[in-house]
């Protein structure tokens, strides 16, 4: 009687591999349509993302060119022409960086032309839309404070100036400027203690600031009040 050959572990693994491959082949054949559809879906999504990024970059470029043209008018003092262009940018490119920056410049024009409520509306919208852009945020927050001061709301203006100084305390120029502005508002209200406090902060915290000498002068004048 002939003995059967014993199957080794290696041969068993090879047989299992063959079976697995056969199962995979059968699965693919049964679900070929779904497999192809899934592959096409991935490609379509990838193409869609690439097109979106390309279009977004193109829109950003277009909005920047439009903003640059409007800024030329603005810095030449041609506010009416600049305003028209800013309004188009804000409407057409609202989701872009330039569209949000246009809110700041448009707010400034409203302030210069004594449309204070419209100015503060644009400044506040700008702040909400560009929270991580320090330069734009500072400009818009100072715009709000300036409007409040212009409207005679000196306490609110002073608090806004102090908020800016505290938020951007590491920025020597911005912090000292807004502490100086806050002190001025408190002086108008004859709250000399708070005015003194803000001027003193400049002297102690920002001795190298260009507002240092002005703060010292204001302090000496307060002593004579």
Gist of the model:
The protein is mainly alpha-helical.
Number of helical segments with 4 or more residues: 10
The poorly predicted ranges are 1-5, 46-54
Structural class: mainly alpha
The tally of strands reads 0
Strand content: under 5%
Helix content: over 70%
Commentary on this structure:
With 225 residues, this protein is an all-alpha fold. The protein contains ten helices and no strands. The chain has helices at residues 9-30, 32-75, 79-92, 97-112, 116-129, 134-150, 154-167, 172-188, 192-205, 212-222. The radius of gyration is 33 Å and the shape is elongated. The protein starts with 8 loop residues before the first helix and ends with a helix.
Annotate the secondary structure layout.
Layout: H1 9-30, H2 32-75, H3 79-92, H4 97-112, H5 116-129, H6 134-150, H7 154-167, H8 172-188, H9 192-205, H10 212-222
Helix pairs in contact: 2-3, 2-4, 3-4, 4-5, 4-6, 5-6, 6-7, 7-8, 8-9, 9-10
Which structural traits does this protein have?
225 residues; 10 helices; 81% helix; elongated; disordered N terminus
């Amino acid at each position: 009687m002939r003995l059967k050959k014993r199957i080794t572990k290696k041969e068993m693994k090879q047989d299992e591999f063959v079976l697995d491959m056969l199962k995979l082949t059968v699965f693919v054949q049964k679900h070929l349509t779904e497999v192809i559809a899934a592959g096409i879906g991935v490609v379509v999504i990838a193409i869609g993302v690439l097109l979106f990024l390309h279009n977004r970059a193109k829109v950003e470029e277009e909005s920047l060119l439009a903003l640059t043209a409007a800024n030329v008018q603005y810095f030449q003092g041609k506010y009416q022409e600049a305003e028209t262009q800013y309004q188009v940018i804000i409407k057409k490119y609202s989701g872009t960086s330039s569209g949000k920056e246009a809110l700041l410049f448009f707010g400034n024009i409203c302030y210069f032309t004594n449309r204070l409520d419209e100015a503060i509306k644009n400044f506040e919208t700008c702040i909400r839309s560009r929270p991580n852009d320090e330069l734009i945020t500072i400009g818009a927050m100072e715009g709000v404070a300036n409007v409040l001061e212009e409207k005679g709301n000196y306490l609110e203006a002073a608090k806004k100036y102090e908020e800016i100084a505290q938020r951007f305390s590491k920025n020597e120029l911005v912090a000292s400027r807004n502490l100086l502005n806050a002190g001025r508002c408190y002086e108008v209200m004859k709250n000399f203690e708070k005015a003194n406090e803000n001027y003193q902060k400049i002297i102690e915290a920002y001795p190298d600031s260009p507002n240092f000498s002005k703060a010292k002068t204001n302090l000496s004048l307060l002593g004579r009040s």
